[in-house]
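Hypothesis: this fold can be encoded by more than one sequence.
Test: take the structure tokens below, design a sequence, compare later.
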């Protein structure tokens, strides 16, 4: 496995000589790990004078607005496809491994001569070629940190700095729920220990990621929790969010972050669903579960993916109530 990471490093160093431009692709709807990890890698590539760009599918989530160097990523624009395709030589997926996870950028990703991936999702499948999939890593940040260490060792120079450590720490704290989710390992702490040498402000990071709330979010959450349906003796929690509800509170999709986990935390709940209907009718489903329910497997049967305890999928234009009923039935069959 490590040799794949080394091959990726060598190909990136080759890009410097050949002036090949590397495009970084965090997954669509970039979260703390996807954005933090890919931006950290971008800063390292820049330090190494490797031509590189970080391409996002959508503007940065306001929740992540505290991260340093947010002027560096660029947001995909339809009108620039040809420009991007012409310049790009290497496409590198971060915190995802397949072009389907790149959203609107897929057409550019697919056109790359060389494709690479650095990912930790089980649903991404096997490693191979220049695809490094390490499902034991709690966050893509652990993999990026290892890659940076590879570069440092190989080039005998220091690349890590306070900004990069802040980005990777935010990524790691994000995906491990501040080091309490079951994906957290001794390796997570070893990575964190290394990052701490560069003094990232972890109080600020955890406040921004976990503690900071808004009145809008507080009231919206109260309403959603009041209306949540608990069924199957309270083993399943299902919450529905339509456009009207968001409009009523002047809320956006970002205000829904964390709700599905809080529902899973209710005593007796083994699996929780949040169904959010978009203006075009598509329904985004977020799933959180405890040991007995493999959320990743469940989501995959609907064309989605994720981790065993945190997964999701998008269902093409559907009726919200009907979909909720169908998912409930399917989940009941899936529960042990
Ligand atoms: Mn991740």
């Amino acid at each position: 496995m490590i040799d794949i990471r080394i091959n990726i490093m060598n190909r990136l160093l080759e890009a410097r000589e050949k002036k090949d431009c590397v495009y970084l692709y965090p997954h669509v709807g970039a979260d703390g790990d996807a954005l933090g990890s890919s931006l950290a890698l971008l800063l390292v590539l820049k330090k190494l004078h490797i031509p590189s760009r970080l391409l996002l599918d959508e503007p940065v989530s306001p929740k992540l607005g505290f991260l340093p160097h947010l002027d560096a990523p660029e947001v995909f624009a339809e009108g620039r496809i040809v420009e991007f395709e012409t310049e790009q030589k290497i496409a590198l997926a971060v915190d995802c491994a397949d072009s389907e996870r790149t959203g609107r950028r897929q057409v550019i990703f697919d056109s790359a001569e060389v494709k690479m991936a650095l990912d930790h999702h089980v649903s991404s499948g096997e490693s191979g070629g220049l695809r490094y999939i390490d499902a034991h890593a709690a966050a893509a940040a652990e993999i990026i940190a290892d890659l940076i260490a590879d570069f440092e060792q190989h080039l005998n120079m220091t690349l890590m700095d306070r900004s990069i450590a802040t980005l990777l720490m935010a990524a790691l704290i994000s995906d491990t729920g501040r080091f309490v989710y079951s994906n957290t390992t001794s390796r997570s702490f070893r990575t964190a220990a290394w990052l701490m040498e560069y003094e990232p402000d972890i109080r600020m990071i955890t406040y921004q990621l976990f503690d900071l709330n808004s009145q809008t979010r507080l009231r919206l959450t109260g309403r959603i929790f009041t209306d949540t349906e608990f069924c199957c003796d309270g083993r399943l929690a299902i919450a529905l969010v339509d456009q009207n509800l968001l409009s009523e509170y002047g809320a956006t999709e970002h205000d829904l972050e964390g709700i599905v986990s809080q529902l899973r935390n209710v005593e007796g709940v083994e699996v929780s669903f949040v169904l959010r209907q978009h203006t075009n009718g598509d329904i985004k489903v977020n799933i959180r579960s405890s040991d007995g329910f493999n959320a990743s497997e469940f989501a995959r049967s609907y064309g989605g993916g994720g981790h065993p305890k945190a997964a999701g999928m998008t269902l093409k234009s559907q009726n919200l109530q009907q979909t909720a009923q169908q998912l409930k039935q399917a989940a009941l069959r899936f529960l042990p």
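The domain at 2-210 is CATH 3.90.1640.10 (inorganic pyrophosphatase (n-terminal core)). The two ends are 34 Å apart (CA to CA).
Hypothesis status: open.
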